[in-house]
Design brief:
alpha/beta, Rossmann fold, four-stranded antiparallel β-sheet, 7 helices, 10 strands
């Protein structure tokens, strides 16, 4: 599904290069549940943003289903992201001015899904996540756990092949965190490929692979 070869990310200030990722080689197969760990500043979120096509590498190659993402323009990358990737953020990134229903509907509008199909997909998703009673509430009327549930529901409503989760339990208590991780495990068992960033060793073990980043390098991998 994913192949990274000698991927690098750096920022230039005059003659000085500051590296965030260095010489990253990584293969991700369909159905993997990969966890990325490492200290703050190791490059974890940058790696996730490049995988999600929200950021560009400075050097190296990124293939997504054998397509050379590193050669694509922003519009082509955006199309792939929209059609194949769901993103779950630590801070939820829900749209404050929209209800739960409208937040779930938004990615379907971007994909130009017809009205009747949108309505059915949103209804099914509300039911699956047991948040039907919350559909007319705004994000600030929800608990952190409920907001993250909505965030995951929004990420999967378009049936993406890949979910990228950046510290999905970072702002949640342990019970809420377990609920979110159980949900991600269920999605993975249903065939969705998942790549998560976490500091939590317990949640890291929910996956089948763990890579450790240090100063932008892949220090080691554990399976």
């Amino acid at each position: 599904m994913i192949k990274l070869s000698k991927l690098e990310k750096f920022y230039t200030n005059g003659y000085l290069k500051t590296y965030v990722l260095r010489n990253v080689d990584l293969d991700v197969e369909e159905g993997d549940f990969l966890t990325v760990m490492g200290p703050s500043g190791a490059g974890k979120s940058t790696l996730l943003h490049i995988l999600g096509m929200l950021d560009d590498p400075s050097n190296g190659a990124y293939y997504f289903y054998d397509q050379p993402v590193h050669e694509f323009n922003e519009r082509k990358r955006s199309d792939i992201h929209k059609n194949h990737i769901g993103f779950v953020f630590q801070n939820y990134h829900l749209i404050d001015e929209l209800t739960v229903y409208e937040n779930l509907e938004t990615p379907l509008l971007y994909k130009k899904v017809k009205g009747s199909e949108r309505k059915a997909l949103v209804a099914d998703t509300l039911d699956r996540f047991r948040i039907v009673a919350k559909k007319d509430l705004f994000p600030n009327q929800l608990s952190g756990g409920q907001q993250q549930l909505v965030g995951i529901a929004r990420a999967i409503i378009t049936s993406p092949k890949l979910i990228l989760a950046d510290e999905p339990t970072g702002n949640l208590n342990s019970a809420q965190g377990k609920e979110i991780m159980d949900l991600l495990k269920d999605l993975n068992e249903d065939g969705t490929t998942i790549i998560q960033v976490t500091h939590n060793e317990k949640w890291a073990e929910c996956g089948n692979r763990i890579i450790h980043l240090l100063d932008g390098w892949i220090e080691k991998e554990v399976t």
